[in-house]
């Protein structure tokens, strides 16, 4: 990584465009997020869609080869799609490198028998349908944390609040972090603040939010934000690499998620999709390298949070009544 102090921060193409009379005004300091991760740093990295130990091994090997720093690795198929031995192997491999492992919890409506999720409206989407689906998410959370998983991914507001209450009451370890999925990501500052108060430690916002939207969110909440720099096709397929520095400036503290467009979906993963899953895992790391190279060229790579850091800092929560 380049020392940002050695290279003045600049916008893409700034010097050439200014010479051509096409320069733009300097960034407005009022747009900058005032927040950072505890312990310093304004951005962390995440490699998503790492669906098992074999894919994880590919990610770790490629990250070492390309010198891509990783703070978090997440999985999308769900805790229930992994054996205890597979979860333990992933926990051990990430712990050895001081990387946070995040696994998705429980049943989700898009795989349920409810027909409304297949309608044009998509019904309630990925949310947990009924008491039993919530129970399945809780079961996954307890099982995963007992095996050493420290971060849980959720796609339902009720599940989020339930797991937060479980964490405060000692049913889950107190240092468990809860991450809101992009499948239900908030699109305005009011809803973002609600997720924080329901127990979210990081919130994945849709990748089509504008820079102004990020500034609006940061005026009401300092909870860490996750954002696909390149989104899967089923989340829009957006590629925002050239905006990375500005996304950090507006949205910090920000997890840069290196997804992959123009790739088939792999959830729920099984060995029948092995070659595709390993190939896309490798390419996600390469996409990360490309984004980090852009940050370095723009003199904006100096605010990365320390590797191994994972906690979100002090956040605001709804009061839990007894």
Strand content: 5-15%
The percent of residues in helical segments reads 25-40%
Shape: globular
The major sheet is characterized as: 8 strands, parallel, barrel
- Report the order of strands and helices: HEHEHEHEHEHEHEHEH
Tell me about this structure.
With 322 residues, this protein is α/β, with parallel strands linked by helices. The protein has nine helices and eight strands. The chain has an eight-stranded parallel barrel with strand order 1-2-3-4-5-6-7-8, surrounded by six helices. Strand 4 (151-154), helix 5 (157-168) and strand 5 form a beta-alpha-beta unit. The longest helix is centred in the last third of the chain and has 24 residues, at 274-297. The model is unreliable at 1-6 (pLDDT under 50).
Brief synopsis:
The chain contains 9 helices and 8 strands. With 322 residues, it is α/β, with parallel strands linked by helices.
Question: Which features does this protein show?
Answer:
single chain; 322 residues; alpha/beta; eight-stranded parallel barrel; 8 strands; globular
Helix and strand arrangement:
Layout: H1 14-19, E1 43-47, H2 53-66, E2 72-74, H3 84-96, E3 100-104, H4 130-146, E4 151-154, H5 157-168, E5 177-180, H6 189-198, E6 202-204, H7 211-218, E7 225-230, H8 244-251, E8 254-258, H9 274-297
Parallel strand pairs: 1-2, 1-8, 2-3, 3-4, 4-5, 5-6, 6-7, 7-8
Helix pairs in contact: 2-9, 4-5, 6-7, 7-8
């Amino acid at each position: 990584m380049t020392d940002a102090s050695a290279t003045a921060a600049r916008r893409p193409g700034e010097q050439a465009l200014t010479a051509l009379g096409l320069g733009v005004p300097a960034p407005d300091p009022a747009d900058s997020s005032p927040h950072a991760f505890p312990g310093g740093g304004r951005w962390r990295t995440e490699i998503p869609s790492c669906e098992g130990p074999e894919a994880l091994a590919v990610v770790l090997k490629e990250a070492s080869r390309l010198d891509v720093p990783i703070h978090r690795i997440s999985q999308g198929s769900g805790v229930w799609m992994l054996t205890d031995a597979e979860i333990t192997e992933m926990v051990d491999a990430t712990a050895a490198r001081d990387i946070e492992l995040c696994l998705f919890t429980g049943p989700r409506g898009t795989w349920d028998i409810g027909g409304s999720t297949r309608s044009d409206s998509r019904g309630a989407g990925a949310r947990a349908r009924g008491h039993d689906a919530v129970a399945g998410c809780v079961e996954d959370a307890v099982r995963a944390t007992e095996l050493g998983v420290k971060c849980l991914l959720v796609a339902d507001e009720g599940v989020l609040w339930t797991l937060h209450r479980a964490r405060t009451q000692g049913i889950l370890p107190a240092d468990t972090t809860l991450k809101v999925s992009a499948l239900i990501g908030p699109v305005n500052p009011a809803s973002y603040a609600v997720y924080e108060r329901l127990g979210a430690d990081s919130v994945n916002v849709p990748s089509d939010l504008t820079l102004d939207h990020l500034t609006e969110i940061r005026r009401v909440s300092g909870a860490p934000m996750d954002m696909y720099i390149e989104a899967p096709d089923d989340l829009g397929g957006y590629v925002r690499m050239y905006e990375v520095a500005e996304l950090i400036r507006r949205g910090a503290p920000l997890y840069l998620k290196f997804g992959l467009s123009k790739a088939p979906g792999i959830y729920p993963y099984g060995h029948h999709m092995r070659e595709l899953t390993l190939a896309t895992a490798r390419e996600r790391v390469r996409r990360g390298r490309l984004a980090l190279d852009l940050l370095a060229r723009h003199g904006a790579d100096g605010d990365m949070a320390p590797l191994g850091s994972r906690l979100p800092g002090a956040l605001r929560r709804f009061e839990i009544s007894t």
